[in-house]
């Protein structure tokens, strides 16, 4: 039997009909509006884009975020895409 240590990263994403999104492994909500959420997760930054997005549930103690609205895309921002996403971070610090 294998024990899961605290150092093991885990994330679960559940989506229902592109309208309800539940994400675990969330460390922080960096920014959000009705078209875009930027989450810091255990596996990197996650950008969620869509229409009429709003937060249904937030529990950073449990690492859980639930988002409602029409989801267009989910995108992890890693080292390869960080240069492309400067517009996203530029929006944060206007």
Protein described:
This protein has one helix at 86-92; strands spanning 13-16, 20-23, 26-32, 36-41, 44-59, 64-77. With 94 residues, it is mainly beta. A hairpin with a 3-residue loop joins strand 1 and strand 2 (20-23). Residues 1-5 and 81-85 have low confidence and may be disordered.
Sum up the structure in keywords.
mainly beta; 7% helix; 94 residues; Immunoglobulin-like
Kindly summarize this structure in a few lines.
Pfam families: YabP. InterPro entries: Spore_YabP, Spore_YabP/YqfC, YabP_sf. The chain is mostly beta strands.
Task: Tell me the layout of helices and strands.
Layout: E1 13-16, E2 20-23, E3 26-32, E4 36-41, E5 44-59, E6 64-77, H1 86-92
Antiparallel strand pairs: 1-2, 2-6, 3-4, 4-5, 5-6
Rg on CA atoms, Å: 14 Å
The level of helicity is under 10%
The overall pLDDT average reads 84
Shape: globular
Total count of domains: 1
Report the count of strand segments. Answer: 6
CATH architecture: Sandwich
Q: Beta-sheet strand percentage?
A: over 45%
CATH topology: Immunoglobulin-like
Query: Strand pairing plus helix content: what structural class?
Result: mainly beta
The SSE string, one letter per element, is EEEEEEH
Low-confidence stretches: 1-5, 81-85
CATH class: Mainly Beta
Number of helices: 1
Alpha-carbon distance between the termini?
51 Å
Strand order of the largest sheet: 1-2-6-5-4-3
The largest pleated sheet is described as: 6 strands, antiparallel
């Amino acid at each position: 039997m294998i024990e899961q240590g605290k150092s093991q990263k885990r994330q679960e994403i559940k989506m229902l009909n592109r309208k309800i999104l539940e994400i675990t492994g969330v460390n922080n909500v960096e920014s959000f509006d009705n078209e875009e959420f930027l989450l810091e997760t255990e596996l990197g930054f996650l950008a969620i884009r869509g229409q009429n997005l709003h937060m249904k549930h937030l529990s950073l103690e449990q690492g859980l975020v639930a988002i409602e609205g029409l989801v267009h895309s989910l995108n992890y921002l890693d080292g390869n895409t960080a240069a492309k996403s400067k517009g996203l971070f530029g929006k944060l610090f206007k």
